[in-house]
Amino acid sequence: MPVLRSATAGSGEAPKQFSQPSRKGKKAWRKNVDVTEVEEGLREVNDEIIRGGVIREKASEDLFTIDTTGDSKIPQKFPKHVKKGLKADEIINKRSAVPAVSMRKRPSDKTTDGVVPAKRQRTDWVSHKDLARLKKVADGHHENTVAVKDATFDLWDAPAPVTQDPTDFLPEKIEAKVPKSMKLKPLSLLANGKQAPAVPKPTGGYSYNPSFPEYESRLAEESTKALEAEQKRLEAEAAEAAKLEAAAKSAAEADAAEERANMSEWEEDSEWEGFQSGVEDERPSAKQPKRKTQAQRNRIKRRKEEEQLAQHKANMKARRAQEQRIKEIAAEVAEKEKEKALELAKAAEQVSDADSEIGEEKLRRRQLGKYKLPEKDLELVLPDELQESLRLLKPEGNLLKDRYRSLLLRGKVESRRHIPFKKQAKTKVTEKWTHKDFVL
User: Fold this and answer.
1) Largest CA distance in the chain
2) Are 379 and 401 in contact (CB under 8 A)?
3) Residue 188 in contact with residue 194, Cβ under 8 Å?
4) 208/379 Cα distance (integer angstroms)
5) I need a surface site. Which of 23, 268, 385, 434 has the fewest CB within 10 A?
6) Are 3 and 82 in a shared domain?
7) Which parts of the chain are coiled coil (predicted)?
8) Alpha helix (H) ranges present in 263-398?
9) pLDDT tens digit string along 122-161?
């Protein structure tokens, strides 16, 4: 009969039951816990302590050593490789591809073999004829004068003209030229020339649930603008009405004058009734200008010369005074420049803070394109339209219009006129008589 043993009888492990993960309860969980890994770890730590200490707690100097001498048994095992050396050492030692200069003595160039060489003409000297010609050239006397011609093209800007091959009849491909304005920065439409922010920061008065002081100030401001616009419109209408009335009055007067001119001379009053005597005897009493004498001209000339000399002396005196205190003037100018720079920096900070908010921008006179910048929508909720609930809130403004107007204001695009209908090409419908092409 076979002997029945448990799975952990001879292994020295703690007895344990089969893992049953579905069993619940704190007592069953404590009973079925597996402590095999913990026991193995403790056993390994005890073995390391017996051998000399825990390896993880030791320093690197106790565990490792640096071998600087090498193994002494390698030359005995591999004598051939040790004598020949490694290829890496050979490559490192070979520092230059040029061979070293040999130390043996070489024969001198003065020693000969006793054979006298044949005489040849020397080529390392200049003849008298060439020397005379070079002297003339140095003095500016040239035998052949070179005619200077003006260049037909700019050497640094455009390439040299190339003659076209007669066999090449195909036209060259012309690339589209990039306009100069593509390299320039966009021109802002603001009067001060500064770049407006892409998305301006709204103030508290633009909120759907604003505070009373901010909302009251903005409402008063917008009301004032509306009243001014209405006043201008009424004044323009009044001026137009006055102009029409004056034109009608002048037309009536012209008609009346024409009617009086057409009347007979007997119906009009006699011109002799208003006859005034002594009109022709009146003469102009204006004093006629007389011609200046030479003495008067000389006197005027001397006075002008004296005035110029006095002005020159005053300028020279002021210049000498400035030269004497030039250091003080330089210090004053430097101090003024510093103050001006500080003022400009403060103004720039204030302007940057103010420009980031939505406000009434002042546009420049000359705008881009033929059409003006579209007016900004009035994003204002009247007091009776203010709602306390977001459900009853009616949103104001249009993000698409705001972005388009921002692009126009920053000079990114040019203002255009909206064309609702595009002109279509005229088409004519015909019927082909294909039955005429039928052949038996």
Assistant:
1) 177
2) no
3) yes
4) 10
5) 434
6) yes
7) none
8) 294-324, 326-355
9) 677 788 888 888 888 888 776 666 666 776 766 676 666 6
Q: Does any domain span residue 268? A: no
Structural domain count of the chain? 4
Q: How far apart are CA 406 and CA 358, in angstroms?
A: 12
Say if residue 71 is in the same domain as residue 31: yes
CA distance 162 to 166: 12
Q: Which phi and psi angles does 363 have, rounded to 5°?
A: -90, 155
| Beta pairing partners, 357 | 201
Residues 4 and 69 in one domain: yes
- Section 24-38 average pLDDT: 71
What are the residue ranges of helices labelled H in 176-211?
none
Cα→Cα distances 92→86, 96, 246, Å: 10, 10, 110
pTM of the predicted protein model: 0.37
- What gap in Å lies between CA 193 and CA 209, rounded to an integer? 35
Looking at residue 402, its amino acid is: D
Residues 333 and 382 both lie in one domain: no
- Please report whether residue 111 resides in a domain: no
Range of the domain at 213: 209-260
Check whether residue 79 and residue 6 sit in a common domain: yes
Contact (Cβ atoms closer than 8 angstroms) between residue 217 and residue 205: yes
Q: How many CA atoms lie within 13 A of 111 on its CB side?
A: 3
* Separation between Cα atoms, residue 203 and residue 221, nearest integer Å: 13
Return the sign of the alpha-carbon dihedral for residues 148, 150, 152, 155. Answer: positive
Residue 218 contacts residue 205 (beta carbons within 8 Å) = yes
User: In this structure, what token pair is assigned to residue 76?
Assistant: 């005995």
Q: Which residues contact 23 (CB under 8 A, 6 or more apart)?
A: 29, 32
Cβ–Cβ < 8 Å for 426, 207? no
Last residue of a domain, one of 89, 120, 147: 89
| Residue pLDDT, tens place only, 79-119 | 776 667 778 888 777 776 677 777 777 666 666 666 766 76
Cα separation of 279 and 281, whole Å? Answer: 5
Do 6 and 81 share a domain, yes or no?
A: yes
- 53 and 2 within one domain: yes
302 and 383 housed in the same domain: no
Buried b (16+ CB within 10 A) or exposed e, 191-204: eeeeebeeebeeee
Tokens at 406, concatenated: 């921002």
Query: 225 Cβ partners below 8 Å, 6+ apart?
Result: none
Residue 190 lies in a domain: yes
At 100, the amino acid letter reads A
